[in-house]
Amino acid sequence: MAQTYTVADLTVLEGLDAVRKRPGMYIGSTGSRGIHQMLWEIVDNAIDEAANGYATNIDIHLYEDGSISVEDNGRGIPVGIHPEYKISGVELVLTKLHAGGKFNNNNYSYSGGLHGVGASVVNALSEWFNVEVYRDGDIYKQNYASVEENGKITSGKPLFPLKKAGKTDKHGTKITYLADRRVFDDINVQYDRVSRRLQELSYLIKGVTIKLTDHRTIPAREVTYTSLGGLVDYLSQLNSDREVIHPLPIHFSGERNGIYAEIVMQYVNSDKEYIYSYVNNISTGEGGTHETGFKAAITKVMNEYMKKVPQSAKDRVDFEGDDYRDGLSAIISVKMKEVQFEGQTKTRLGNPEARIAVESIVTEGLTEYLQDLNNAPVASMIAEKALTAARSRIAARKAKKLARDKSKADAAPLVGKLSSCTGRKPEENELFIVEGDSAGGNAKMGRDRKFQAILPLRGKPLNVEKKRMEAVLANEEFRSIITALGAGFDKSFRIEDIKYHKVIILADADQDGAHIRAILLTFFFRYFRELITEGHVFIAQPPLYSIKKGRETIWAHTEKQLDEAKQKLGRGCEVKRYKGLGEMSSEQLWETTLDPKGRVLLQVTMEDAAACDNIISVLMGDNVEPRKQYISAYANFNKIDTYQGNTVN
Ligand code: 28G
Questions:
Q1: 314 and 437 in one domain?
Q2: Taking the C-alpha atoms of 198, 199, 200 and 201 in order, what is their torsion angle to the nearest 10 degrees?
Q3: Ligand 1 proximity of 1 Cβ (cutoff 6 Å)
Q4: Under a CB-based contact definition with an 8 Å cutoff, are residues 581 and 456 in contact?
Q5: Of 200, 470, 510, 595, which is the active-site residue?
Q6: Does the annotation mark 508 as catalytic?
Q7: 7, 78 Cβ separation under 8 angstroms
C-alpha cells in the first residue's frame, strides 16, 4: 500500500478561508483549549506515522517567540506533483481541507488511517507555518503565511512552491508554526499539560520516543518519554500507589472486522473499579460501547469460571457483573474508523460494532488466561475477591431491607428487648444501650419513660472486625440497635431519620465493659459515622464510689472526688465501691447515671471512635502478628478506654 501510493490518491477539496472565518468550528475554541488542540493536530500526524510503524521518534520544541516545532522520522509527506491539481502532495495536505469540509479531528485518524487532515487547519490559524520534508536524500521546504491583502486576511498562503533545499540522510517531516495572535487570546501552551499528554501517548503507542524541549525557560526544560511495555507499563504506573493482588497485569489484544483492541487489567486491594478507555488514542471519559463489551465479557467468562470453582454449599452465591469488578483496574484501547462520539462532553463511544469486537476479544483472551495453569494462583485470587464482593453486596441489600422494615418497627412499641419511650420528639429522646440483662432491668425501672428508651445487650455483641457485613447483620444485638435507631444502616443510613438524638452506651467500668464500649464505637464508626461526627454518641459514667453518712450520700467518679467527699462528710462515713451496674438499685441508677440533673456523660469524638476502630482491627482482625505485638505491649484492655470527649449532662 505504501509503495503503490501516489499523490493522485489524495481527494481534494476546499481552501482554508472557511477555517479563518469560523476558527471555533474547526479547532473547538480560540482560548487555551484551542491553542493546545492546534499542537495535538500536528502531533497526531506524527503519532499516526509512528503507530503505522514508520517513525520511531517525535521531537517537539517550544520556542521563546511562541512558535512550536514538531519533527518525526517517518516517511515524510509525499512530495510528488498531483496530476489534477498540479501542486505537491505536501501543499495539498497543508493548504486544503479534507472531504466533508467540516473538520472533525476525531473521525479520521487511527493507526492505518489517513494523515494530515488537521495540519491544514493549523496552517490556516497560524501567522506563519513552515514545513520541511526529508525524503530520498533530499530536503524539501515550503513556507506559508497568513497575509493581509486589501484589508482581508488570506491564511496559509504558500510563499513559494515546494523546493529542494539541500541534502540529508534523514527521513521524515518537520513542521514549525506560530499560532496567530489575531485568532487566539493567548498563544502559550502549558508545559505540564503538553508533557502529560505526551507521556500518555508514549504509553498508548509503545516503542515511540517522544521528546519535549521548552526553550521558554532558562535553562530549557526537557523530558523524554518511551515505553516499551505500553499499556502494561501504563497500568502499572496508574496502580503504583495501589496495592496490587497480582504483580503482572493481564494483557490481551486482537482484531475483529477492522476494529483493533488492546486490553490490560489488574486487580487491586480495593472495592472500587477503575476503567480507563481510549478510542484512537483519545480518552473516552464517559465510557461507551467498548467498555460495555469489556464488562459483558468479564461477566460471561467469570460466571463460567466460578461454576468450576469448588464452593461449599453454604458459601454458594449468585454472582452479578459488578462482583467481578471490585478492585479491577483496566485500560482499554480501541482503534477504529468512523468513530461516533456521544454524551455530554462527547467522550462516550457510540459505535455498536465496538462492543461486539471488544466483547469477543476479551472473552477469548480472558478464557485463555484463566485456563492456563500458570495463572491458577491469580485466577483463584480473582475468584476469592469476587466471592467477597458478592457477599458484601448481598449483605448491603439485606441492610436496605432492614431499613425498609423500620416502618413496621415504628408501629410496634417493642423492638426485640427494646423498652421504647413514650415521647415522640427525637431531639429529646435518649437511647441507652446497656450492658447485661440485670443492669438493663434496673435501668428500665429507674428511667424516665417519657424520653428514655433502654436496649439491654446480652453478653458481648459480635466482633465487628469479621468484616462481612452479613455477619454483623446476623447478630441480634446489632440488628436491634439498627432497628431501634430507625434510620437505615451503612450506605442507606439517613441521619435525619434517627429516633434518638442521644445514643448512650452504659457499661461497667471494668475490662468487659471497656470491650463492649470499643466494639460499639467501632460499629458506629463503620456503619453510622455521622452519628459520631454529629455528636450523638455518648458514654455514660456511672460513679465508682458512694460515700454515705447518716441520710447523706455523695457519689464519686474518681479517687480525687472520693477524697473530697470523705473530707466533707468527716469521720465515720461509709465508703462503698461499685464494680458493676448490677450492684445499684434502680433508684440509685436514676440518681447517678440516668437523671440529666445528676449524671455525667462523655461525648464521643471521631478520634475516640477511630482509635477503637484501629485497636479493634488489631485485636480481632486476621493479622496475627500485630495482634501479638499489641497484646504484649498493652496487656490490659482498659488502656484503650481513655476517651477524649467533652463531659456533658
Ligand atoms: C512533523 C509533524 C507532524 C506525516 C506523513 C507521511 C505520509 C503522509 C504524513 O501522507 C497523504 C493521504 C491519504 C495516505 C503516506 C508518506 C504515504 C506514503 C505518507 C507529520 C497518504 C499524507 N508516504 N507523515 N502524511 N495521505 N508526519 N508529522 O505530519 O492516504 S504527515
A1: no
A2: 50
A3: no
A4: no
A5: 510
A6: yes
A7: yes
Mutate to test the pocket of ligand 1, among 47, 49, 175 (most ligand atoms within 8 A of CB): 49
Same domain, 149 and 116: yes
pLDDT one-digit tens code per residue, 573-632? 999 998 888 888 999 999 999 999 989 888 887 777 677 666 666 655 555 565 555 544
Tell me: do 221 and 235 sit in the same domain. no
Split into its structural domains, the chain has a count of 4
- Are residue 534 and residue 635 in the same domain, yes or no? yes
Distance 224 CA to ligand 1 centre (A): 24
What angle, 0 to 180 degrees and rounded to 10, lies between the N-to-C axes of helices 376-404 and 476-485? 50
Bond into 161 cis (ω within 30): no
Ligand 1 neighbour 115 (Cβ under 6 A): yes
- 572 and 585 in one domain? no
CB atoms within 10 A of CB 368: 12
In a domain, 607, yes or no: yes
Whether the model pTM is above 0.70: no
Q: Which residues contact 21 (CB under 8 A, 6 or more apart)?
A: none
In a shared domain, residues 138 and 210: yes
Specify whether 315 is catalytic. no
154 vs 641, residue with greater confidence:
154
Pocket test for ligand 1, best of 77, 109, 131, 139 (most atoms within 8 A of CB): 77
Q: Is residue 161, in this structure, part of any structural domain at all? A: yes
Task: Give yes or no: residues 353 and 430 share one domain.
Answer: no
**Catalytic residue, candidates 512, 530, 564, 583:** 512
The CATH number of the domain holding residue 109 is 3.30.565.10
Q: 99: CA distance to ligand 1 center in Å? A: 16
* Annotation marks residue 512 as catalytic: yes
- What residues make up the domain containing 560? 545-577
